[in-house]
């Protein structure tokens, strides 16, 4: 099995495992967590009535439904994701909303056989950071877009600029073995942090007029330290470190997280900074590089 295929298999297994089930059961809570990012990304994308839109890594359907509302009944939006458990909820939400212009498909956007030149807009909130071969993945996405089609991505800047996700992991290093640091070309939550790499990927895939706009905002993890600690158990870097550990280790980690978050409590809860890029680009009219 190639490295690319192996990474894809691991990602599918992770996003369909018990470790990520709470992305479904805690959907409303996660939506509140990332509400600021969602609003900023959708404003940057500016979906228009009647457009055809692709939502990459659509998850439980939050951005998919917002896109469907914006394009109206005369448009169409396709959501794609590798997580069956998240798409099951997305389908329920689409049906409940009566959003007949929205559909979802279970597959890897990096390799899915999209109809060529179909989409006016390709959008994602966090759905592209784990592609094993991002140039090839975006080449595939580029072929699915109409010439001049718009691309809008919300991705994280480097880990040190995202203490909401990374700072608390120091509190559990005595309990778990941290993974080896990722290389600059390896997929991961912060793999799109380097602007030069972002431009190289998108230029190589046939996009033009690539622009990265910084987005800085607080992420509120909970009303108090206990709630923030509970949240850190299933989202962010700490959650990945704790995947598969014994219950005794998990309880010790919960206590360590709570002690870490206690000094960060404030009137609005426990908030820590997040740093992102809003990336925009246009699909080139020229054939995409193979």
List the helices and strands and how they pair.
Elements: H1 3-15, H2 22-25, H3 27-33, H4 35-45, E1 52-56, H5 62-71, E2 76-81, H6 84-97, E3 102-106, E4 119-125, H7 134-144, E5 145-156, H8 163-166, H9 195-204, E6 207-222, H10 225-232, H11 237-241, H12 247-261, E7 265-266, E8 269-283
Parallel strand pairs: 1-2, 1-4, 2-3, 4-5
Antiparallel strand pairs: 5-8, 6-8, 7-8
Helix pairs in contact: 7-9, 10-12
Please tag this protein with its features:
globular; alpha/beta; Rossmann fold; 290 residues; eight-stranded mixed beta sheet
Structure in words:
By secondary structure, the protein is an alpha/beta fold. The protein has one domain: 3-Layer(aba) Sandwich (Rossmann fold). The chain is built from twelve helices and eight strands. It has helices at 3-15, 22-25, 27-33, 35-45, 62-71, 84-97, 134-144, 163-166, 195-204, 225-232, 237-241, 247-261; strands at residues 52-56, 76-81, 102-106, 119-125, 145-156, 207-222, 265-266, 269-283. Strands 1, 2, 3, 4, 5, 6, 7 and 8 form an eight-stranded mixed sheet that branches. Helix 7 (134-144) crosses helix 9 and helix 10 packs across helix 12. The radius of gyration is 19 Å and the shape is globular. The mean pLDDT is 92.
Spans where pLDDT lies below 50 across 5 or more residues: none
Provide the helix percentage.
Answer: 25-40%
**Element-by-element helix/strand order:** HHHHEHEHEEHEHHEHHHEE
Morphology: globular
Number of structurally distinct domains: 1
CATH architecture assignment: 3-Layer(aba) Sandwich
Number of helices: 12
Which class in CATH terms? Alpha Beta
The fourth-level CATH homologous superfamily is Vaccinia Virus protein VP39
Strand content: 15-25%
As for the CATH topology, it is Rossmann fold
Which structural class matches the secondary elements?
alpha/beta
Rounded average pLDDT: 92
Radius of gyration: 19 Å
Termini distance? Answer: 21 Å
Major sheet details: 8 strands, mixed
Number of strands: 8
């Amino acid at each position: 099995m190639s490295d690319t295929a192996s990474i894809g298999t691991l990602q599918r297994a992770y996003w369909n495992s018990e470790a990520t089930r709470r992305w479904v059961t805690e959907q409303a809570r996660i939506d509140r967590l990332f509400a600021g990012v969602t609003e900023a990304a959708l404003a940057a994308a500016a979906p228009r009535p009647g457009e055809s839109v692709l939502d990459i890594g659509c998850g439980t359907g939050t951005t998919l439904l917002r896109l469907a509302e914006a394009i109206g009944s005369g448009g169409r939006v396709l959501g794609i994701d590798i997580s069956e458990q998240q798409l099951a909820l997305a389908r329920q939400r689409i049906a409940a909303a009566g959003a007949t212009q929205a559909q979802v498909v279970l597959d890897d956007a990096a390799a899915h056989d999209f109809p060529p030149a179909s989409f006016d807009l390709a959008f994602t909130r966090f759905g592209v950071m784990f592609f094993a071969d991002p140039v090839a993945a975006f080449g595939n996405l580029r072929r699915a877009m109409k010439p001049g089609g718009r691309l809008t991505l919300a991705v994280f800047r480097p880990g040190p600029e995202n203490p909401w996700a990374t700072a608390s992991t120091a509190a559990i290093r005595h309990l778990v073995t941290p993974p080896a640091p990722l290389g600059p070309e390896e997929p991961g939550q912060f793999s799109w942090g380097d602007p030069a790499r972002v431009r190289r990927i998108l230029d190589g895939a046939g996009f033009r007029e690539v622009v990265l706009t910084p987005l800085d905002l607080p992420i509120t993890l909970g009303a108090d330290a206990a709630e923030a600690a509970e949240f850190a158990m299933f989202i962010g870097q700490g959650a990945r470190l704790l995947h598969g550990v014994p219950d005794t280790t998990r309880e010790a980690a919960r206590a360590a997280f709570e002690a870490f978050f206690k000094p960060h409590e404030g009137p609005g809860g426990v908030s820590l900074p997040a740093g992102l890029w809003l990336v925009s680009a246009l699909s080139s009219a020229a054939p995409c590089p193979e």
